[in-house]
């Protein structure tokens, strides 16, 4: 057991003393969902899971081929966190990136059975105009109660609830981390800053949670809040800044952040050194807020498009986290999807970043599928505390 783990076991014990800190916001959450949250606390105090968007659905040069995964074909093991998106509308057969919802359900089940975790985001269409999430036409007021598109929004939520109900095995509903209305402090989605008021955003988040939980009786979700780092000033009152649009402690289990700007993107305002410093600060910030609130922190989206820096995984992600591991507790790091040779965030076979990705995988701080035991069972999330 290393130093980090001893310290963290102690803090985990202290955390355990205030049991409420580990209770999901849904007081009727299923036992497995409760266990998942407790385990996420524990995992985040020890290391972090690696996640990948759409991992089983497609990769560079292949699509919907049973058993395939670019992560498995490069690191040797599936990711520990599987990201999915239920946009654009649930009355379609496939999602916005052409994944059939029926297949998504199968892969979610497979991820669950492997002892890994599923998280869902939702690029819902703009229901006011009938176009996509990036249409900034104000729409939040229209879809809230009393608005002209409210019934249509409720229809989408009903379909979502139905889909969530279908995410089950014979005996149990599969716990899912739901991450709606992400990057809301940016202005690029219709639910973003400038396209609705803060009060409207909060009402949207709260309505979504309340409706699923109280009206549809969905009790196998943990809820994640995930502003974007690029619109978050770290120099002045960062905490208050982070909490723009925060719907309240009763609505959020996971204190997330999406951060693409501090992880090697070329052409931005900051030098690589400043980027690294900001990356560390952003993770310290979510850790601090999560600790204060008794929640779990996570890097809910990140990545360098094309992984153009061959040692990106160790140099940009792992080493800064490792060097600050007393002040950074994040349960997972999720990189975005592998669409093609230019738009991909995980390596694929033959890519120059593969050797470094393997080093990243071998590090005791990172968890892939092979390191997971059963995150839905109390105290049994990881295969062993020492890898
Ligand atoms: C973006 C891009 C798009 C995709 C969207 C939703 O970051 O990857 O191609 O449609 O996410 O997954």
From TrEMBL:
This is Glycoside hydrolase family 26 protein. GO terms for molecular function: hydrolase activity. It comes from Marinoscillum luteum. Keywords: Glycosidase, Hydrolase, Signal. PROSITE patterns: GH26 (PS51764). The keyword Transport does not apply. It comes from the Bacteria. InterPro entries: GH, GH26_dom, Glyco_hydro_26, MANB/E. Belongs to the glycosyl hydrolase 26 family. The active site is at 183 (proton donor), 301 (nucleophile).
